[in-house]
Amino acid sequence: MNDIIFLIGRILLVLVFIWSGINHLTNDTLIGYAQFKKIPNAILAVRLSGVLMLAGALGILFGVWGDLAALLSALLVLLMTIPMHNYWTLDDATAKQTDQIMFMKNISIIGGLLAVAWAFSTVGEGGYTITNSVF
Prior knowledge:
Elements: H1 2-26, H2 29-36, H3 42-62, H4 66-84, H5 93-123
Helix pairs in contact: 1-3, 2-3, 3-4, 4-5
C-alpha cells in the first residue's frame, strides 16, 4: 500500500513539471515574461529550465536516481522562484498578491520535492520504480 501511495504522490507532483517543461519549450510568451523580469539570456534560461523540469520529472516518476532528481528539481524551483516571484519588490497590490501566492506555492512544491528525496533515500529501489516494478 505504501508503494502505491508513493507512486501516486510522485505522479501528482511531477504533473506540474511535465506541463511546465513542455510549456517552457513551446511557448514563446514565457520568454517575454522572463525578459520583463530581467532574466539574463531569457531564451536560453526558459528553454534550459524546460529541459531540466522534464528531466527531473522523469527521474522522479520512474525512480531513476529519484533522490537526486528530486533534490535538483527543488534547487531549480528555488532558483527560478526568487527572481520570478519576487513579490517583495512590487508596489501594485494585485501583482504583489499574485506573486506572493506563486512564491508560496513554489515553496510548498520545494517541500514536497524534499520529502520525495527523503523517501527515495529511505526506501531505495522500492515504491514502484523502473528498476524494480511494472514500469
